Amino acid sequence: MCRMSSKTQPVITYSGDTQLFSSLELVTSQGLPQETVEWKRSYGRPPRAVTLSASFQPFKADNNVCKEQKGLKRLSGSQVLHTYWVECPDVDTYKASVRENIQAWFTQIKLVECSDWLIILVETSDSKKSNKILPRTTVLDKVKNDFGGKTTERCLSVVDPVKGETKSSESWQTFLFRLRQALMAAFSRTLTKFEETVRTQRERRNELNWNFCNYFLLQEELAFAFEMLGLYDEALVQYDELDALFTQFVLNSAVGDAPDWLLAFQATPNNWSGVCLNPKSPFNLELRQKIQDHTMSVVDFRNYLFARQSALLLISSKPAEVARRCLSYVQSYMYELKLLNVNTVDGAIPTWILLTCLQVLSTCQSHVGASGASMESFALLWNMAKDKLFELGRKCGLLPGASVGSAELHCVVTLSSGITDYGDESAIRPTPVDKLKEALSSSQAFTRHYLELSELAMGTFKHCGRLRSARLIGRDLSRFYLQLDQPQKSVSFLLDLLRGYQEENWPLLKIDTHIELAEVFLKIGDRVRFIEASANIASYTGLNSETRMKYFNYLLQSAKDEFRSINCSSMIDLVDMRIDFDTSLDEPCSVLCDSTVSADVEVLSHFPGPVNCSEVAVTVKAVKNAATEGSKLSKTNGKKSVADKSIEPAESEKAHSYISSQNVNSSSNEYIPIKQQLHLKQDGSLSSVALVCPSAQQLLGRKVSHGLLPTELSVTKEEYSHKLSLTDMTITPGVNRLTLKMKADHEGTYVVSQFLACSEQLEFIQSISCPKLSLTVVEVMPSVTVIKSREDLLAGTEQEVELVIRTGSTAFKKEKTLRLCSSRGLTIHLPNTDTPFQREVDLLLRPMAAFETVTYPLKIMADLGFTTSKEATFVEHKLSVHCPWLSKTPPLLDLPLNVYAPFTVQYKLHTAYTKKFVNIHIQGLTPSSRTLEFQNPNVLLPDSTYKNPALSKLEWKNLNGSFQSLKISQEQPANYLWELCGAPVQYEMPLLKAEFSVEYRLDGSVDWKKFSFNFDIADYATLFTVRSRVEPVKGNDFLRAGSLCHMTLTVSDVLQQASSAALMYEVLADQALWAVCGRTAGVFSMEGSSKHSVTLDVMPLVCGFLPLPAVRLSRYIPAEQKPKDGNRKPDLAAASLPRLEPFSAGQVYNWSKAQQVHVLAAPSNNGPTSLDTSNS
């Protein structure tokens, strides 16, 4: 191929200084293809970047050259550019001799009518150094003036690069660039003229003296030119046009007269070695020579044409396209042989196709880029090679079991003589020719090669996803193994083929495969799988009755010896199933426990005869309740997702009947489990909703193409403990209506799982999948509940409740005893009995029927111990019931009872100088419709209190009404007040433990109940008093807003026993009313005096009646000093720091509390008016 394209290089002629050009020829020819040049094409075709090379020849102006240039019948060897090389040191030398020589050369150029020429002036630095005075005109200017005319760019000057001048490299690159441009323009014009010649010859194709071979060689030169330029796609277009033109001539010859040149293509081929894709092989050169000599056959022509097309595609890195074209090439080749009536040796065409496919596969797979896109074409070529090898084996008697005679041996010899190895010594051994000769040598070698080709074809089809084609090859292999008397190896191929027919629902092809499988199973003695195949054949209604009965009898005979489970979905089909549910129950599709469940089923038998069954059953299995799952929250990326929330079919789809999947679309044979996921944000709002399939991996898993049994034949009998069954019956051909029964002895939800029919040693099993019919066995357990009235239960009063007992689905045939136990603080009483309120009560139950309800009234009373708490308004009590029907140990059932407090009680100590008052505050918690009535309040101290001499004179002064009755509720609280009289006057007062008691009853009730409340009175002696006074400064008579005034604090020691105590005062002023100038707190000691006064500067901020700033008095404990209260433990961590100790309520009395002063407004700029003065 390289030699073919090298002939089409454009020829550049040289004249002038031949010795000079010889020194520059090598660098010129090597420098031209170093860079690309833009080719601007004619006829509106887009420009292309091409690499241009050329060959140099001396110019000869003879007649042959002139005629050739005028005619332009050949592109190879055409002279496209003429150059004249000269080295002239000065203008004088140019005028003396050089100009005349150029003129003579220019005259000869005009004779050949070539307008493309260049004059190259080679300069050296020596010539420039000899002329120290710059001339007015250079030699290049003279050449341009004498010969350039309007095309002065054809005159070039270059510095000799051989002599290594400094500027020679830049000058030489510029020269090469202009030479490429001139050569491209000249070659483009020549190529355009040649295209016109080719077009003219094509238009003359209907003339009698027109010959396709001559035209082929002419247009092929155009393809060679494009190939030389690197335009492989353009070169391929030329061969495609020739291919289409030749095909059109062949098709026209079938319906009309054939041209004379086409008769040469009808010669009998004597070589069927296939296509040679090696571009360096001399085989293709020999074929081209045959085309030039007009001695080729259609086989030779097609081999050469496809070899050239493949070579261009392989150079373009398109091996997949070569394989794709090979398929159509082989088909058109066989069709053309038929149209041209070419006589060939028997077996020559399969041999040629086989070798062509192997050669293409061997060549294409060795190139990088044979990826998945080309696998389909490769698989088809492997399959075609396999089929043609099998055809040759049949002709040559090489198939298993075939006899070899003289005719077969003669065929082998004839075919072997017509195949050669292309004379290529560099080919990798073994070549396709070697493999074919080896395959034709013996039956064992043929078998080995045929199995190898089959395996390659099957594996390639599987790799590109064409499983159906791979299974068809498996069918051929199974038949081949049967001929080899190896039926066990054919089983896997037939089962794989059967699986494909089942998935794609081809019933007729499926049953044919079943028949083949039955014969194979019978040969290898596999009785178990023979039973399965016989059952499928016998149940197919499309076969004739004789065949069906034949295999049905096989099935019945084999059933007595071999145990086997068979999927009977296509043999004995469960068409319809209806379960009789208990409509009296609230839950749909349910029955009571321990009842008998019956179901009416319709079974369709496809067998041609009756089947005696020992049992027909529908198994059911328990399922988990999916509603309890899916309440878990999981955080993901700052969101909460609620997972596993099952999406069930609508209730209308959960019918009471089952319809066979044979009657519905196969795509909906089973519900896909889908669960809902709610993705929540951090604030609880909904972010997104997703539908998730928890079994996606199983549903979307890749289907396995191997295995012992197809999915339709394989079946697994599930474990079960419950079934609807019927024994000893006969299933006849057609529809059979049966009634199945079952004892529902366990509670739970069940779904029908499998249909089962047992006949001797055979089990016909069908999985029930669409839709899943569910059955709920309901066992209603006895229940005990406590029902209260509409109003809340109140503590401290008798409350009536009802104990409701429901028997459920269990009947109490004997008397039963219920023991009621209450929690601490709650007592129970049975009405109409003499028993008091107590924590444990026994209740006797009479015999009761199923689903009977009995109500027993109860009275309860809860303690009021929690009413003194401010936060607890109710207590959760429990009523425990000992139920004898519960299975757990102990059989306890806890019933919650929330008891609410009717009121709360709080104690508070009030002080009026040295007098002490005890206030009891009762806050009602009941609504106004349930008021409480209180009477006879009383406060007592224990007798031990009066034994203390200091407390012997204590007495309570009742400040309440003597016989006053108060009613309280949420809107109306009550307060009781007593004055504590006779208390001793001392610093440390003893603790008083008091008890408050009152009688109460619920409004409308008759009986009064007593309530007691214990409280402690501590630190009830008044120790200090505080007085505050605010006065204007001197010079002002009134207090004015914004004016400074004095605040005087006076602290008095009431008992005069704490004179050495350190005290601290703090002024707590409202910042919106007062501004304290200076410090707001201070420490002082009252040692030596009973009073202490402090004066502060304050400023009122607003006018009006303002409350005085509050003053807080605290006990000041310096550092490293224990507190005066000996009962307190010192804090070691804070002992080194001073701290404050607040006084208890009642120890400090503030005389000025709630006192106000009148503050006038600030004076205006004009001064106060008399009206303001009078008002103040």
From TrEMBL:
It is found in: Golgi apparatus. InterPro entries: Ig_TRAPPC10, TRAPPC10/Trs130, TRAPPC10/Trs130_C, TRAPPC10/Trs130_N. Residues 7-323 form the TRAPPC10/Trs130 N-terminal domain. It comes from the Eukaryota. One of its GO terms (cellular component) is cytosol. Signal peptide: none annotated. GO terms for biological process: early endosome to Golgi transport; intra-Golgi vesicle-mediated transport. Pfam families: Ig_TRAPPC10, TRAPPC10, TRAPPC10_1st. Keywords: Golgi apparatus, Transport. Residues 784-889 form the TRAPPC10 Ig-like domain. Its main location: Golgi. Residues 1034-1160 form the TRAPPC10/Trs130 C-terminal domain. This is Trafficking protein particle complex subunit 10.
